[in-house]
Write a structure and sequence with these properties.
The structure is a homotetramer. With about 260 residues, chain A is mostly helical. Chain A is built from 13 helices and five strands. A three-stranded antiparallel sheet of chain A has the order 2-3-4. Chain A starts with a helix and ends in a 9-residue tail after the last strand. At the A-B interface, α1, β1, β2, α2 and α3 of A face α1, β1, β2, α2 and α3 of B.
Amino acid sequence: MEKTEKQVMYRTAIAKASAEDVLIRGYSLRCLIGNLSIAGLCYLLVKGVMPSESEGKMLDAILVACAEHGVRPPSIQAARQIASGGVQFQACVAGGILALGDSHGGAIEDAMNVLAAGVAAMESGAGVDEAARQILAGSKERKQRLPGYGHPTHAQDPRTTRLFELAREHGIYGKCCRLAESIAQQTKPVLGRDLPLNVDGGVAAILSEMGFDPRIGKGIFAASRVFGIVAHVFEEKLREKPMAHLPARDLIQYDGKELICGK
Amino acid sequence: MEKTEKQVMYRTAIAKASAEDVLIRGYSLRCLIGNLSIAGLCYLLVKGVMPSESEGKMLDAILVACAEHGVRPPSIQAARQIASGGVQFQACVAGGILALGDSHGGAIEDAMNVLAAGVAAMESGAGVDEAARQILAGSKERKQRLPGYGHPTHAQDPRTTRLFELAREHGIYGKCCRLAESIAQQTKPVLGRDLPLNVDGGVAAILSEMGFDPRIGKGIFAASRVFGIVAHVFEEKLREKPMAHLPARDLIQYDGKELICGK
Amino acid sequence: MEKTEKQVMYRTAIAKASAEDVLIRGYSLRCLIGNLSIAGLCYLLVKGVMPSESEGKMLDAILVACAEHGVRPPSIQAARQIASGGVQFQACVAGGILALGDSHGGAIEDAMNVLAAGVAAMESGAGVDEAARQILAGSKERKQRLPGYGHPTHAQDPRTTRLFELAREHGIYGKCCRLAESIAQQTKPVLGRDLPLNVDGGVAAILSEMGFDPRIGKGIFAASRVFGIVAHVFEEKLREKPMAHLPARDLIQYDGKELICGK
Amino acid sequence: MEKTEKQVMYRTAIAKASAEDVLIRGYSLRCLIGNLSIAGLCYLLVKGVMPSESEGKMLDAILVACAEHGVRPPSIQAARQIASGGVQFQACVAGGILALGDSHGGAIEDAMNVLAAGVAAMESGAGVDEAARQILAGSKERKQRLPGYGHPTHAQDPRTTRLFELAREHGIYGKCCRLAESIAQQTKPVLGRDLPLNVDGGVAAILSEMGFDPRIGKGIFAASRVFGIVAHVFEEKLREKPMAHLPARDLIQYDGKELICGK
């Protein structure tokens, strides 16, 4: 059996269940329940160490900020469509989470990488505004959308404004946040139009300040938006009949071929 | 267009995004960020009203209690297998959530329905132990597993013990919790073996005390376990190579037909 | 290790891969490629035995009949919404498949169970029309929708008509099909309005004639509709921008509370 | 309403359902049922035109070749784990499909892009073996795995061998297939070890010969493997109990911190 053990052995440093308790990152779950918030546990699970009080509250605010934005985003549309097919609750939730891809919450990871490059430039001597201009110029040259900026509904994203207020209060606001704001201020001169720092961009800056790995971006967003998705699936199941959201026939435009072969 | 509007109109009482803010159940998201925990927001989203401080803390403890239980449950196995196929982060998380079906977290809803029936019996005059015995006898007669009791790892579920402690502290412990405990105590005399109140059953009793609709059971569990799933997907992506968890060949038993037709 | 082997041993009678070949239900995959259609392989995989030529063609026709029905069904809406979030191709397909629940393709299994009960009545001496009337009367009494009957678009489902034509040609049409048609003919006198045998009901009758287990219903439908879903995801990715299908703002009705707490 | 119509209008050239029929790429579904195989319909749905007889049979063979490879791949493991959580049939299938990412079937798209670059070099005058060497040298230099080559089980992939035999019979074998085989033959001299053309690589070459867009790669693979996944979910549901596949405790290695905080 030796040669096969290697293949099936699961390694994990996250948790271990025993008869008496569950050990999470070395802490007794029995002790954590009632003493640590779910936001604090999220920090512990992902980073492997306990958050300070400020870090726990900051992450809690981030989870609240991204949790819900109405019925329009693809994640909610998908979850409610799936629910209308007569599907188990958790599977509808899963369908909503699927939609949180590169264009829907996915900007957090990309924005964290952009900020990391800017901070590296600052550590090599560039001023914050200069680093911001370089990032904007690079984005303009490559004709790529700058991740974390612009929003179809908000000219100024109220969630980012509030999160940065809290970051200052908690002593978390630092060079990543400054850089992110400098970029926003220079979108008009460099790109020709004002692009606000949206919630993805604001969250990216604060997660960067707290030392999170950029690759957790989609995970944090999913762990937040799941709360909104759960509420919408619940509402759909209580209020609507199956197949309730078929788009109106008049609003579908078939622009393919007409009858080629008929009986 | 009138006849079609009915078909595409989405109704929702959860949230509304405007240029300046997002309104969640009537509350400004700008105000909620930093003032309400994500557990409190979960309560607001699902029930439509603000939690008291005790209710917010109780729900927070429930979310912590269900978030993580090691690498063995199907939800974690599925999420890590999917990650090993080279899949986007959120889609691995969705795959884990899919597994939270009737046999994995799904007992909360069923247990809430069982407790509701017992409470109805108590309101018609039965004592708590009598109501418990009726439930156990009914389950025995129908040869159905009693939802919320028994656990493969824990002879006494430490999460339930701790949650009930907190329910007492917060003044939430009431007849649903009493009934749930009475059932556990009588499993030995009625069913012939001790079945502890597991975390699903404990959560069911406390959600019932707080007036939650049983149909939210799988949703609350998914919103909690998503944190463990996110941590495992993150670990898988950082530590393991693609296709890392193929079960050992010697551990698969093909018990179908042998070669019927060969070249 | 003995005590653990039991836990990890996977049993399967479906297939076994070796260095030289893959054995599927005892047949060499090398031989199957080019000699058996994918519909025939579906039969072999699910039933464990080779289809006759007629059975293979009949199942192929069923897969074609259920594969695509335009952009309106929840499965397609969900898949395209997910695609618009910037998501990997296969995950969009998975999201579409999720929607194929009890109210969307799920009627096949229920309809097969209804037909099995009717056939049992016929074997106990009831005539086909009598068995049909009993089924309709039972459905009326329990106020349950009869699975496999009625369609929002088709007054007469063209797919069922064609499938039954083929079932006759291939000698597969028998008492299940006769019963299914008799039920349709008696919907007007018993229920008060004409309900056509829809494609779920037609497929249920034919799968029953071929001896399929009702529990495969959702699986066969998923294996068919996956082809339509793949085409729609592909079209979405080639033709549309991210976040393309946000429903119009004017078509969402927020009917919850207005501002309770503002800054 | 004019300004909103643009937002909700769904455009599609795939299909249109009317009261009497469903039009697929201009063809009557009523006529297609019984006259076109599901493989042929797949071709029609994706490419928008009817396949020739050879193209239809070739795509059928591809769907058969990729449909099933035993219980070990992540897609099957995930689907069966999810099924063991007590989950609806179609949601287990969806979970299996999720796993078909960049490292599991995803090589088809990448391999098609590699072959397209090689064919472009051939059109600029390079011989087939020279184009193959350039591709291998580039892959070696960038230290990237060459998509479509190598397999953990098969030293020579029997599925590719058989598919290429059929491609010759159907007059589809051309420069993409030649190039793919030349690359395989030169893996030993250039990379130092023999890497067979695996089924992803073989399918990539043949889809390229038939003019498919590389971006359909994961879609074709998903539409094929769905048949194997359906069979495994069905077997799991019929044969196994919930939570059946927990990995053995002794085979999980917790390598995180030990108890830091206990009650």
